[in-house]
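LAB NOTEBOOK - FOLDING QUEUE
OPERATOR: T.R.
BATCH SIZE: 2
PURPOSE: Compare the predicted structure-token outputs for two unrelated chains run back to back under identical settings.
PRIORITY: normal
REVIEWER: second-year student, initials M.K.

ITEM 1
FIELD SEQUENCE / FIELD STRUCTURE:
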Amino acid sequence: MRHQLRQAERRPPGAAGADVVTTRLRGTGLRIRADALGAFGESGELADECRLRVAAMAPDPEAADVVCHEVEALYTNGPAGGGGVRADVREVIGIVSALIPRSGVETRVTVLEVDGAAA
């Protein structure tokens, strides 16, 4: 029992909120990410407070709106002392780094001239 208490004491603040949100959204098919920002101090000790950030990838705005409702519900019904909530849905374009074979790249240089001068 004492070991379990120590493990619970070592959890960062915000971890319980992250657990609640991810558990409630399990089975929705959304890719959920919940982070406790500022949970650890500069020397690695647990901070007294942090900020919970929740993000999701959804196929449409209506599906993403479900995440907003869960975050707002946690804010109004969760631990005391919440520092505010901002829930909005917006489209994000992702960038992925990838390697392709050199044979798949065509090298070409084009020079454009404007009024007789090279641009």
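ITEM 2
FIELD SEQUENCE / FIELD STRUCTURE:
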Amino acid sequence: MTASSPMWPAASSGAPYRTAAGATAEVRGYRPADRIRVTHGTTTVQVALAPAADGARTLLRFHQEHLTSAEEREQQRAHWKRTMDQVAAALDGQ
């Protein structure tokens, strides 16, 4: 993935972005081919890539900070699990 890829909204901290659904937010941090941190409402979401131990695969991780309650954490955990399932299905279809 590159800075010009739609997966990475922008390549510089402080840059605004807009989702396909129309939500607007800001890039908080970006390290090419490593991670991006973006605001999402009152939270910050980090998407990170890392090589797996076997070197043949890549790990994709989501982390969301500043959630307000255990209930919200569980809701978001379920959301990110569905997101990971969609990513895996898309990659399996290649």
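REVIEWER COMMENT (ITEM 2): The beta strands are 16-18, 24-31, 35-40, 43-51, 58-65.
FOLLOW-UP: none requested
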